[in-house]
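stage 2 :: seqdesign
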């Protein structure tokens, strides 16, 4: 077992949705966490939420990873960082189509900047936040890690593919540098305490925040994008995974790196539940756990949606030694609890 107390871990984007839940799990596991976040898609209140849950306020620096000048002094004074969990990135698919350069700069240049700084402090343990979007419309289901990488349908998806390639190339030339890339399926839900969760800016693009905002009355009606897909009920199928399960996968991956348990210095794991749920099943789960009807309407398909995507989690279960524990109902209950809490705060 790793003695984690004095191990300093940098979490970039640590005030974001998945980042903040991961900080909680890292602190619960005893790691000494330092957060870098430019607050572009998060708020400082998240720090308070993390403190309420764990009793520890992580070290926080409001810095933008695009600026080499700004981050250099940070890495100079934190040369004792043992591992990095890199979340900092933009993630809105539609926006990435509108602003490709912004996405390449924000997601790829920042990765390069961090990696260059890590070289100077000789930190060799890196966890990268990737996505199942790299598989596109997979030829067969469930999706394994050896499924082909399909041409990206958006600049956002492309930044994930390019980032994985950059890391793989570095691992080839520097055998001491170790990376785990975690390809998340659809993270949903919130911490069961209701202190942290997802904070979508403006109109939510993702299904679950749209559902909870509709139920609370912020949105009038949930549009269900298409019911003519070749699935049982005609709606798309995804692998929805509780964000706390996703967060825990990072702790396991970090321990794997720190204990040098890797089979190769570049590893990729699917982070999902292994179960596919349709949009209508997600709505049904929400209605059941909250005991209310949701106002929704079937509308046209959304451009760029794949029909079905769910993970084969055998590799994560057996090699990484991690398994999702929470159910879809758990995630919907926690998402609803979070939505109610943030609305009553305002
Ligand atoms: C999207 C991104 C993915 C990203 C993930 C998390 C694409 C192609 N993929 O996944 O790269 O990692 O978000 O940010 O965009 N739906 C509705 N009504 C809504 C919203 C969604 O019916 O108002 C449906 C969608 O058609 C889809 C499912 O719900 O079938 C899930 O959608 P969403 O939550 O946006 O996630 P993905 O599109 O799977």
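stage 2 :: out
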């Amino acid at each position: 077992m790793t003695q984690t107390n004095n191990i300093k871990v940098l979490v970039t984007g640590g005030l974001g949705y998945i980042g903040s839940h991961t900080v909680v799990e890292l602190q619960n596991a005893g790691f000494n966490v330092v957060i870098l976040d430019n607050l572009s898609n998060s708020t400082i209140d998240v720090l308070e939420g993390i403190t309420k849950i764990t009793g520890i306020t992580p070290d926080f620096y409001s810095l933008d990873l695009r600026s080499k000048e700004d981050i250099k002094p940070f890495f100079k004074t934190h040369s004792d960082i043992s591992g990095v969990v890199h979340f900092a990135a933009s993630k809105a698919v539609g926006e990435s189509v509108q602003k490709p350069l912004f996405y390449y700069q924000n997601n790829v240049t920042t990765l390069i900047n961090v990696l260059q700084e890590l070289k100077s402090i000789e930190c060799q343990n890196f966890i990268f936040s990737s996505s199942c979007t790299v598989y596109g419309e997979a030829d067969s289901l469930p999706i394994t890690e050896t499924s082909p990488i399909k041409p990206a349908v958006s600049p956002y998806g492309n930044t994930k593919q390019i980032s994985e390639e950059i890391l793989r190339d570095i691992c080839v030339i520097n055998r001491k540098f170790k990376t785990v890339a975690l390809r998340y399926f659809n993270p949903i839900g919130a911490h069961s305490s209701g202190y942290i969760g997802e904070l979508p800016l403006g109109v939510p693009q993702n299904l679950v925040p749209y559902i909870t905002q509709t139920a609370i009355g912020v949105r009038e009606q949930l549009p269900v994008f298409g019911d003519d897909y070749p699935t049982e009920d005609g709606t798309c199928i995804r692998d929805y995974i509780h964000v706390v399960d996703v967060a825990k996968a990072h702790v396991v991956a970090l321990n794997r790196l720190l204990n040098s348990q890797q089979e190769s210095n570049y590893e990729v794991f699917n982070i999902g539940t292994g179960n596919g749920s349709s949009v209508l099943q997600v709505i049904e789960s929400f209605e059941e756990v909250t005991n209310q009807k949701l106002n929704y309407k079937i509308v046209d398909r959304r451009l760029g949606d794949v029909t079905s995507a769910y993970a084969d989690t055998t590799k994560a279960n057996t090699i990484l030694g991690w398994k999702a524990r929470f159910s879809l109902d758990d995630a919907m209950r926690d998402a609803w609890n979070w939505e109610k809490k943030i609305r009553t705060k305002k």
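stage 3 :: structure notes
- The pocket of uridine-diphosphate-N-acetylglucosamine is lined by residues 91, 93, 131, 133, 157, 186, 205-207, 210, 222-225, 236, 238, 279, 302, 304-305 (CB under 6 Å).
- The chain is about 40% helix and 20% strand.
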